[in-house]
Structures are given as structure tokens and as C-alpha cells.
Amino acid sequence: RARPLLGDLVILAQGHLDAELDDEQRHLARYARRHGLVHLPPDFTADSDLGALEGGAPVLVRGFGLAFVDLMVLLTEGRGGRHDGDTYVPSGREPVLYVGSRRGVPYHSKIGYTWDDGERPPLPRYLGPAQIDELLARPGGFDFGRDVWPLVEKELGFAHYHRLFGAHPDRTTTAWADFDEKYAACPPGSPELAALVSSAVPDPADRLDLTALDHPLDGVRHTSYEGLQDGLRAYVTADLARRHDPAHSPDLAVFLGLLSVYGQLVRLGDIGPWWHGYFSYLASGPPGPRLRQLLALSRAGVVRFLGADMRVEARDGVFRATSATVPGRHVEARALVEARLPQPTLARTRDPLLRALHDEGVAETPDGLLAVDPSDGRVRDRAGSPHPRRFALGPGTDARGAGAFTRPRTNSPSFRQNDATARAVLTFLKGAQR
User: Fold this and answer.
1) pLDDT attached to residue 432
2) Strands of 335-338's sheet, edge to edge?
3) Angle, to 10 degrees, between the axis of helix 288-299 and the axis of helix 66-75?
């Protein structure tokens, strides 16, 4: 029997971990076993058994983020296909991927230009340490939609218009100083703010509409899947053009605003998965060449789009997908891939150490993340008290930082968290040696 390794303290930094299936995925897995279907639950794409997906067979794919991009590459180029310019030359071993998601579109392309000239937006402006302090001090707590999101909207709007007025003044009708003064006086999300923007920025394409960005297919309806293919290809083509055109450099300013906002919101702890998904959708999409490959695969019929609000049913011995974008129609397949990572939850993690902590009774967020002290990462018990010898970092905690954006000269949240934990550990060890 293995002997335990004794230590003065422990730092839990396991990263992304496998998880047991949730209720929906267990139902789909059982159905697949009964009917001889293929069901690949949320997982790391490189670890999934993609060999079970047969060439030429239809496969439903739920999820349109970076996990889908990895899947797309492995099942096309990874099976001998190749891209010849804007044309995809298939090997014949590719399945046909029917992909959809909540939004029904891929993540926005990475921006294909750099900051050329002009002042960067001076951030934070409307969502900084003072505003976070005020939110944390509220006796009744805060609500993300009511209290936080309006500040996020105003901060990102400031970044957007600061760049628009500075770099493209010909597309505005007032001086920046006048707009900035009136913008500061308008309550976040108010009709007054909307009226100010409408009067100062004539072209709607130059205005920032975060809600429309999150729901690009709202109200879009097609009578056939063929019509949807043309519409989605046009959408992706337009996104690629915009994200590689410095004439739309306010998009880059919004990207910088998102990084600033993310760094501030880390202090609020676990604010639910929606914000992290929205952030990734706007700021952490695939590089342009991957989306051009997606277009080529769509034209070749290897990838087919399903639309927004995708729903999957296990019915009549197959998996059946529907979407709000093509009402009254469905696609059937004998294979389903969930193209996303497992949600990090203590209750369902396959890590035995973290499961033991869950059983012991440590503090957890409503979404099942390990609750830690925001000052140094100490694991908290259910009463909220930090453990003197247990620390935790990373995506399974409620103090997860923007690990994908640990850029030079950004003082990123993950670096700040690691520094705080290292200082606390060194202070503890120094005291233990006395």
C-alpha cells in the first residue's frame, strides 16, 4: 500500500479536469448504448474517440467554439484531406458535420491587425477597482444582470467610441470632448445614452450593440437548410473582412476593454458561465485562416450549419437536431459530438482528491466551483473560513483568471493570483521554520 507523502501545505493546481456526465449526458449515453449509436460527451477534443465517426456519415455537433475548430481539423486534414487555396480537397474519410449551438455561429475571428497609432483607451474608466469595491460592499450582494452588466456595457462602449472618435472622426458628428462629457452623464443602458450615440454616430455599423453581437441570428429564419448555408457563409465572410480591416479598429479597442473588464470581474468570484462564454466568443475566437477553412469545408459539403438554439432529441432510434433558425425541419444522425469542455464542478469531477474535498464539505459556488479566499487562494470551508494550509488555483476555483490572456505588460489576473498565493506560501513557510 502506498504511503502518504506528508507536506506542510498543498497547492491544488490541476487545471481542466474530466467530469462525470450530467443528467442530460447520462440519458444520451444510455440511449446511444441501447440503439448502437455514437455519443461523444463533453471532453478534450484530442482525447475523444473520433475513430468511431465513420467517413461520409452524418454527425451532429453541438458547440461552435474552439473545441469545434479542433474537431473540424482532426476530422478533415487529420484524415488526409487538404486545403488548396480556398478549395477543400476531401480524402473521402471525412464524416459530414452538422454543427449548431446556442448562437448558431462560430466565435468571432481573431483581429488581424495591430494598434497602429493614436491613444489607447484609458482603461478602466467605468468599471475599475472602486466600482468592484462598491459591489462587494453591498449588504445584500449584487446581481450580475442588474448591477454588473450595465457597467460592463458602459466600459466597453467607452473603449469603442474613444477609438472611433479618435481614429475615424469623419464618421461622427460631434467633438470627442462633448461626446465624452455627455456619455459620462448618461446612466448605463439608458434611453438617454442610446439617443446620444444615435445622434453622434450616424452609421449603425459604427455603433456598439453588445446584445446584437450575442444573438446574431435573432429573428433570422430560413425555410430550408440550403438557404441557411448561404446565409452563414455570408456572415462568416463579413466577420473575416471586418476583423481584418483597420477601418473597424474600434473592435480592437473593445477587445482591450474586454481584457480590462475580465481583470476586474475576477475579484467578484464566480459570476456564472455566461460571462466567460460571452468573453470567449468575442475575444478568444479562431485565427482568420481557420475560418477561411471553415468556409471551404462548407462549400465542399463537409460542414453543414444547423442554426441557433440547437436542440437535440434521442428519438426513433437516432439523434435528432432542430434549431430556431430553420423551424419545422430537423436533421437525423447516428452520432452526436458535444464539442465543448466539461464544466468544472467538485460534485462531478473525476479527480479523487477534489471529490474528497467535496465530500468533506468545503465551500462551493452555486455552479460547483471550489470557493477560495480572493486575497491569496486559500480553500474555504462551508463557514467561509480559509484553511491555513490549503491553496487552490485555476479553472476549478471561483478565482479563475484570464489565463489565456497572460500578455506582457498587462498585469493579468492569473499572474496577480499566482503572485498572491506565492507570497502567502512563502510567508507561511518562513513562519513554520521559526
Assistant:
1) 73
2) 38-40, 335-338, 58-62, 96-100, 303-307
3) 60
Q: Which residues contact 198 (CB under 8 A, 6 or more apart)?
A: 207
Nine-digit cell string for 70: 479542433
* Contacts (Cβ under 8 Å, ≥6 apart) of 197: 157, 161, 207
Cα-based distances in Å from 209 to 43, 44, 161, 247, 348: 33, 33, 12, 18, 37
d(CA 154, CA 164): 15
Beta strands in 13-158 (DSSP E): 38-40, 58-62, 82-84, 87-89, 96-100
Among the residues of 115-224, which ranges form H helices?
129-137, 149-167, 176-185, 191-200, 210-214
The pLDDT score that the predictor gives to residue 266 is 84
Closest-CA residue to 307 (of 62, 59, 6): 62
SS3 190: coil
The pLDDT value recorded for residue 336 is 98
Q: Which three cell numbers stand for residue 193?
A: 445614452
Model confidence pLDDT, tens digit, residues 350-403: 999 999 999 988 999 888 899 999 889 999 999 999 999 999 998 888 876 655
Which structural domains are found in the chain, ordered by start? 23-107+286-338 (3.50.50.60), 129-210+240-278 (no CATH), 345-432 (no CATH)
> Cell 450582494 maps to which residue?
141
Average pLDDT of the segment spanning 304-322: 98
DSSP 12: E
Could you tell me if 336 and 358 are in contact, meaning their C-beta atoms sit under 8 angstroms apart? Answer: no
Q: What is the rounded CA–CA span in Å between residue 107 and residue 280?
A: 8
The candidate with the shortest Cα–Cα distance to 244, out of 297, 292, 305, 298, is: 292
Percent of the chain clearing pLDDT 70 (strictly above): 97
CA–CA gap between residue 166 and residue 177 (Å, rounded): 11
Residue range 11-36, pLDDT digits in tens: 999 888 889 999 999 999 999 999 99
Q: Are 350 and 19 in contact (CB under 8 A)?
A: yes
Q: What is the pLDDT of residues 235-268, one digit of tens each?
A: 999 999 999 999 999 999 999 999 999 889 988 8
pLDDT at 56: 97
C-alpha grid cell, residue 338: 458535444
User: Alpha-carbon Rg of the chain, whole angstroms?
Assistant: 24
**At residue 388, what are phi and psi to the nearest 5 degrees?**
-70, -20
Q: What is the mean pLDDT of residues 199-212?
A: 96
Cα 155-159-165 angle, rounded to 5 deg:
135
Determine the residue type at 408: P
Contacts of 364 (CB under 8 A, 6+ apart): 346, 347, 358, 370, 371
